[in-house]
Amino acid sequence: NQKMITFISDYADVMNKSILVKEREINGKVNFSTSKPITLEDFNKMFITVLSSQGMAVIDDKAFLRVIKARDIRYAPTEFKKSNDYTDSDQYILIKHVLKNPIATEVTRGIRPFMSRFGRIISFNDGHTIVLSEKGNNISRTLGVINNLDEKFNLDKFIEGKKNSNINKLKNKKNKKKKKKEKKN
């Protein structure tokens, strides 16, 4: 049963890292035990997971680590990775993913509800590129869904649907104008 600030300090000592943290933002306690020694890699994952469970995020600024509130992650510079080169963890990362088909806008709208509270997804005008800012373990799940959609996408049906949608919009506009005219008369 250890105070969070002490846990962070112990982590810094063991990992030989400098950590910048606002002490007033850190509260709560952590309680853990292990029956056998753990590797430094596992200790690092545990550190990130414990902080994540307390609503915090870790930013690696190369020279030091910063511990911030997870809600502020969108303002912090996170590590930029390729969509096939990231760690499955509670660490927030930023990835660029290129789709085979031009469905980036539709994908971002459809996937957004499945993102974590502080995760973000945006698309670019090329129709193929999306950027995700999210925890590594959630990116794995999200990319699985995105890739599945991308594989099963039928370009011909998509184009036909867009044409029909535009035609229906035009028909609706004409009908509304016609009804307004009829009301005036």
Provide a descriptive summary of the structure in words.
The protein is α/β, with parallel strands linked by helices and 185 residues long. The protein is built from five helices and nine strands, in the order E-H-E-E-H-E-E-E-E-H-E-E-H-H. It has helices spanning 4-15, 40-53, 104-111, 136-152, 155-184; strands at 2-3, 19-21, 29-30, 56-60, 65-69, 80-82, 92-98, 120-123, 129-135. The strands form three sheets. Strands 6-7-9-8 form a four-stranded mixed β-sheet. A hairpin with a 5-residue loop joins strand 8 (120-123) and strand 9.
Query: What proportion strand?
Result: 15-25%
Question: What percent of residues adopt helix (DSSP H or I)?
Answer: 40-55%
Q: How are strands sequenced across the largest beta sheet?
A: 6-7-9-8
- Would you tell me the overall average pLDDT? 84
User: Which shape, going by the Cα principal axes?
Assistant: elongated
User: Helices and strands, in N-to-C order?
Assistant: EHEEHEEEEHEEHH
Class by helix and strand content?
alpha/beta
Indicate the low-confidence ranges by residue numbers: none
Instruction: State the distance separating the first and last CA atoms.
Output: 79 Å
Number of DSSP strands?
9
